[in-house]
Amino acid sequence: AGIGHEYEIYSGTHYDRLFEKLTISLKFLSDALGD
């Protein structure tokens, strides 16, 4: 609870978004290489 808990939630969503961007980038890259 408290500040630590809020930080956990923040970093959790931060990494999820980062992973999502990475996945999209890899998909775009493999599509480009596929052509």
TrEMBL record:
<protein>
    <submittedName>
        <fullName>Uncharacterized protein</fullName>
    </submittedName>
</protein>
